[in-house]
Write a structure and sequence with these properties.
heterodimer; A: mainly alpha; MetI-like fold; flat; B: alpha/beta; Rossmann fold; 10-stranded mixed beta sheet; 9 helices
């Protein structure tokens, strides 16, 4: 009985607020005659036809593939560069000013420049995603690698744990909580840039579809796209949480153990 | 086996020089158990880090097995004071003990046997799959000792390993260290500020002065090899030796109070 109640509570906690918000939206927009803000009823009505057809494979999928490619590339670049910068004070002093400069450039501002250099294909869109996602990952990795415990550094020195083994079992694992924090921030940045990179000079993708709906005055469809984006965000965040709970199980356990011993 | 000659270490920080060690000379014979005892702040940890090749001396030499130390020497292991921080929280107990063996490229089957044997030697065969943070402080220090044993060092350094555990656990761990030493026959150097502990454990006690540190006395402990927490500690000879060491350490403290620091 108790388990049923706690289970019920969790479900309510998860979907309670979304349902309330949808209801508010539903009733507040029910009598709307403003073309740009159609009733939710109409938005939901056009939803299946708009998204469960070719658009899923021709627009949603290409967007998600580009997001995945850009995000994964940013993970690799961010972690590799972050480890290199975080491990050496000399390298850090050398590259820090340049990093500050590059970080200050908003990735959407790069879109026109990248069009000129990389053309209007997928490469530009992926580069824009990388340009935005790499920073949180890189900077958090640097902090994580800098923050390794000096006692463990001595331990590795004493027991001759070096090279790849040291990187794999000590540096990356020790920095993994910060790396995951960066990766989580990068994910939301990536979703934003996925859409932005498709708004101009594009032939497919979610951003392209939005642009089309807007110029064709298909406002219910446009709003249904907002729902799609939100749903993508929720699914990706759940996926991320699953991965994180695996990767950082030790971290959560350790922190719980520290709390109870205090 | 271990030879320290006119060792001096001066820390240079922010224009202020701190002389941690002034002139340390002593040696440890193969298979001997030597305790280094001295008042708090006399540079015991500095001495140990010098012996382990983790820092370089200002002048003087450390020789391990006839070779001057310029980095962590072969066949030397350290049990650190901060047991909670010298084990990797993301690795299970077994993996922590195994890591130095992986670094040494010991074949898998032999690794498993060594890990099993050393965990059994410290009475932790059942805790192999636990994470360090699931164990008590005393058990964590046992894991660190098991890791050192599995490494099969010819010289084992211990840096106040029991400073942070309760008295009961401490007595158990002292007996454990004695039995490990008798069973595996490595050369032991055990650093502590606890006078009782040094006399109880060692064959010889090297007494350090307070900072700027020199060797005050090199004292043979002529207690029987079989030691027992109750019998040994209440024996007349133990009380005598303890009394003597205590007096020396007290004298060292008073002397440094009137000697102007050069």
């Amino acid at each position: 009985m108790k388990a049923v109640i706690t289970g019920l509570r969790r479900v309510v906690a998860l979907v309670g607020l979304p349902i309330v918000l949808l209801l508010v939206w539903w009733f507040a927009s029910a009598d709307s005659h403003t073309a740009a803000m159609p009733p939710l009823k109409r938005i939901l009505k056009v939803f299946p036809d708009t998204w469960f057809g070719e658009r899923l494979t021709d627009d949603v999928l290409p967007s998600l593939i580009r997001l995945t490619e850009g995000y994964c590339a940013a993970l690799v670049i961010g972690i590799v560069a972050g480890v290199a910068i975080g491990s050496s004070r000399t390298v850090r002093a050398f590259v820090e000013p340049v990093l500050e400069f590059l970080r200050a450039i908003p990735p959407p501002a790069l879109v026109p420049i990248l069009f000129l250099i990389a053309g209007i294909g997928d490469t530009t869109k992926i580069l824009v995603i990388i340009a935005g996602c790499v920073w949180p990952i890189l900077l958090n990795t640097v902090e994580g690698v800098r923050g390794v415990d000096p006692v463990l550094v001595d331990t590795c020195l004493t027991y001759r744990v070096s090279g790849l083994l040291r990187l794999r079992t000590f540096v990356l694992r020790s920095a993994s909580p910060q790396i995951m924090t960066g990766a989580r921030q990068a994910l939301s940045v990536g979703i934003i840039l996925m859409v932005i990179s498709e708004l101009k000079a594009s032939t497919d993708g979610l951003g392209y579809t939005f642009e089309q709906f807007q110029t064709r005055f298909q406002y219910p469809q446009m709003w249904s796209g907002v729902l799609v984006l939100g749903l993508i965000g929720v699914v990706l965040s759940l996926l991320f949480r699953f991965v994180e709970s695996r990767v950082l199980a030790w971290h959560r356990g350790q922190r719980a153990a520290e709390r109870t011993s205090l | 086996m271990l030879k320290v000659q006119s060792l001096r270490k001066v820390y240079d920080g922010h224009g202020r020089q701190v002389e941690a060690l002034r002139d340390i000379t002593f040696s440890v014979n193969p298979g001997e158990f030597v305790c280094v005892v001295g008042p708090s702040g006399c540079g015991k940890t500095t001495l140990l880090r010098l012996l382990g090749g983790l820092i370089a001396p200002t002048s003087g030499t450390v020789m391990v097995e006839g070779r001057p130390v310029s980095g962590p020497p072969d066949g030397l292991a350290i049990v650190f004071q901060e047991y909670g921080r010298s084990l990797m929280p993301w690795l299970r107990v077994r993996e922590n003990v195994e890591l130095p063996l992986k670094a040494k490229r010991v074949p898998r089957a032999e690794r498993a046997a060594l890990v099993h044997e050393s965990l059994a030697a410290v009475g932790l065969a059942d805790a192999a799959t636990a994470y360090p943070w699931q164990l008590s402080g005393g058990m964590q220090q046992r894991v660190a000792i098991a890791r050192a044993i599995a490494f099969q060092p010819r010289v084992l350094l211990m840096d106040e390993p029991f400073a942070a555990v309760d008295a009961q656990t401490r007595a158990d761990l002292e007996d454990l260290v004695r039995s490990v030493w008798q069973r595996f026959g490595m050369t032991m150097l055990f650093v502590t500020h606890d006078i009782d502990e040094s006399v109880y454990l060692a064959e010889r006690v090297v007494i350090l002065s307070s900072s700027p540190t020199i060797v005050l006395e090199d004292l043979a402990i002529d207690l029987p090899a079989q030691r027992d927490q109750l019998e040994t500690r209440s024996s007349a000879r133990f009380v005598e030796l303890r009394h003597h060491v205590y007096e020396q350490v007290q004298k060292a403290k008073n002397r440094s109070a009137v000697t102007p620091v050069v």
